[in-house]
Amino acid sequence: MSADATVDRLSRAIRAVQDSLPNSTAPDEVGLAAAGVLEQAAALLEPYAHTFTQSAEWSLDEGKRGVRSLAPALIDPQWEVGSMQASIVFTNFFHGANGAAHGGSIPLIFDEILGRIATAQGVLRRTAYLKVDFRHVTPVNKELHIEGHLERNEGRKFWFRGSIHDGQTLCAEAEGLWVALKPGAM
User: Fold this and answer.
1) CA angle (118, 120, 124) in 5-degree steps
2) Apex 167 CA angle, 163 and 172, nearest 5
3) DSSP 8-state class, residue 93
C-alpha cells in the first residue's frame, strides 16, 4: 500500500469515528471498548507524530502533512493556479442544530481552501482577515459545491473569495486577505 493510500485510509477511519460520536447512544461497554481501541491507535502513532514549533525558518513542508480531519474532506478537488473547486459534505461531526452545519465549521473550510490557494506553489502567506456571510442554511449530510479564487493582489496583499452552494442556493460566501510574509517572518 502506498503512503498516500495509507494516509487516505487513516483519514477515512478518523472521520468515521468523528461522525459516529455526535449524539451517540452507545452503551458504556461499547464506548469503553472504542476508547481502548483509540488509545491503542494513539499509542501506535505517537512515536511518528511531528511536533510543530514556531520558527523564523517557516516552511510549508514541515514533515509530512498527514491527516487533517478538522475541516470537511474535499471531494474531487480541481486545482488551478489561483483557484479551486470541489464538493464537500458537512457530516454528522459538523452538525450544529436542526440539520444545519455548525456555524464555526463554515469559516474553517473557507480558511482551509482559500489558505491552500494562497500558499500554493510554496508562497508563504498568512490569513490577515476572513469575513464570512451566511446566506442560507448549510445542510449536513448533503454534497455541496465549494469554490475559491484569487480576486486581486496589491504588493504583498492577496484577496480571495469563496462560496458554498447547495445546488443553485448560495449557502455562504467569504472574502479574505492573505499577506505574503517578509523574509524571516513567522
Assistant:
1) 65
2) 25
3) G
- Partners of 18 in the beta sheet? none
What φ, ψ does residue 63 adopt, rounded to 5°?
70, -170
CA angle, 176 as apex, 175 and 181 as ends, to 5°?
160
Total-model pTM: 0.78
Which tens digit of pLDDT belongs to each residue from 22-32?
878 889 999 89
Contacts of 81 (CB under 8 A, 6+ apart): 120, 121
Distance CA 114, CA 19 (A): 25
CATH of domain 74-180: 3.10.129.10
Q: How far is CA 173 from CA 5, 149, 163, in A?
A: 32, 12, 4
* Torsion 45-47-48-49 (CA) sign: positive
> Which grid coordinates are listed for 114?
482559500
Residues of the chain with CATH 3.10.129.10: 74-180
Q: What is the mean pLDDT of residues 146-169?
A: 96
Dihedral angle sign, alpha carbons of residues 130, 135, 140, 141: negative
